[in-house]
Amino acid sequence: MNANRATSATKRTDDDRPLRCLVTGATGYLGGRLVPELLEAGYGVRCLARSPGKLRDHPWVGRVEVVGGDVTDAESVGAAMEGVDVAYYLVHALGTGRGFEETDRRAARIFGERARAAGVRRIVYLGGLTPAGVPEHELSPHLRSRAEVGRVLLASGVPTAVLRAAVIIGSGSASFEMLRHLTERLPVMVTPSWVRTRIQPIAVRDVLRLLVGCAGLPDEVNRTFDIGGPDVVTYEEMMRRYAAVAELPKRVIVPVPPLTPRLSSLWVGLVTPVPGALARPLVESLKHEVVCGERDIVRYVPDPPEGPVGLDRAIALALRRVRDADVATRWSSASTPRAPSDPLPTDPDWAGGSLYSDHRERTVAASPRALWRVVEAIGGENGWYSAPLAWSLRGWLDRLVGGVGLRRGRRDATRLRIGDSLDFWRVEEIEPGRLLRLRAEMRLPGLAWLEMTVGRDGEGRTVYRQRALFHPHGLAGHAYWWGVAPFHAAVFGGMARNIADAAESVTAEAIGPEPVRSTTR
């Protein structure tokens, strides 16, 4: 990969400056990984984000320019395109509602038009690999829209490279998490018949290598490229090979007659952390055989000396990242479709409505640093420090109505950054050592936040403060709050008490037992 980076880095503008790249989707799974690869290749990078604050804690943010805007807003896209040589289109409107295809179409047109007006030299788009010989009207809405976006960009008048990939294997990708949890949790599987469909997976590091390489394509190149790894397998074989690499007992897989995409996605949603809304397009893309029809991309971006990454190595690399808690981005890095995005209100009469709250405060016999370590490590494998059965039940209920549930877990076991998903919450704000604010992404008749702060009182003692806030939507929202209010003492009160106890326990372990005094003289 370094050799290809060196080749890409030699591509410069006519005035001998490094190419400037615009990356959309930098808060998402692939965009968040592409940015540091482009920087390492020697390119200048500008990121367009609807919520620029979500990039604040990324290790590379100080080396890029971040601008606010949305791909459906022509003015902000035009401003972001100024002085850009290569524009990466890594966003889609999947899951935003029934009109997502029209939203995708409109956004792609705006992107192409503004790129042409700004004199951008190339657009690079990552789409989905569509099955050969299948009429487009028979494709899933997801694949159909991805194909249409590619056509719109190719017709924009700006030279465009459309990379078409099937299943991407990498730590934190939705496809890998689906594969991992299906295989690990079900030693005996009764599966839909699509597990016998042939697919051509590709390692995420090869996807990134090709995306970077496309920045240096000749100006006359305006076409699609199929990209895939060296292995063509069925999903069933992929699960068996995952089990072998992960050193799991041999899996028994029994396909059953076809299930509808909805039933299949519900099944995937119950077994894996991937919610049904995201599982459905993944499942629908597996109904047809998706195998590369050509490998023309290697004429422009050659394979590395060791060749592209094979399936077994891709699985091993992803597993190592997961086990080492070294996952840079996850499928849940992007906001969950239909999840609330309103910031925490500062006005008690925000929007002219009610704002319910539950306040808890405890003095803690531990240092603020010890308390903060407990707060920042909350969720995931560590749980929520109260009523685990109640939290689990709430997670299952959320999944049953199409929500994300509790099983998204954490990107990192001990550290959080703004924008991270945390079970069915998302980190809205974090001030290390002082404040953690989470916004609920579970299905609710309203908007909810959970805020935890660490500080000292007037006597210098460590204090833990906790606020749960809920802004109801309609009568259902008010009924929901008062329906769960009787359980607040157990859930929120127990949470505050157990977090304080955990911090005090950590402090006691660090100090160690008091020394035993000798009774002899």
Short note summarizing the structure:
By secondary structure, this protein is of the alpha/beta class. It is 35% helix and 19% strand.
Topology readout:
Elements: H1 2-9, E1 20-24, H2 29-40, E2 44-49, E3 65-68, H3 74-81, E4 86-89, H4 100-118, E5 122-128, H5 141-154, E6 160-165, E7 168-169, H6 174-185, E8 188-191, E9 198-199, E10 202-203, H7 204-213, E11 223-226, E12 233-234, H8 235-245, E13 252-255, H9 261-271, H10 276-284, H11 311-323, E14 356-364, H12 368-376, H13 388-400, E15 421-422, E16 425-431, E17 435-440, E18 446-456, E19 462-472, H14 474-484, H15 488-511
Parallel strand pairs: 1-2, 1-4, 2-3, 4-5, 5-6, 6-11, 7-10, 8-13
Antiparallel strand pairs: 9-12, 14-19, 15-16, 16-17, 17-18, 18-19
What can you tell me about this protein's structure?
With 521 residues, this protein is of the alpha/beta class. The chain folds into two domains: 305 residues, 3-Layer(aba) Sandwich (Rossmann fold); 155 residues, START domain (Alpha-D-Glucose-1,6-Bisphosphate, Chain A, domain 4, 2-Layer Sandwich). It has 15 helices and 19 strands. The strands form five sheets. It has a seven-stranded parallel β-sheet with strand order 3-2-1-4-5-6-11, with helices on both faces. It has a six-stranded antiparallel β-sheet with strand order 14-19-18-17-16-15. A two-stranded parallel ribbon has the order 7-10. A hairpin with a 2-residue loop joins strand 15 and strand 16.
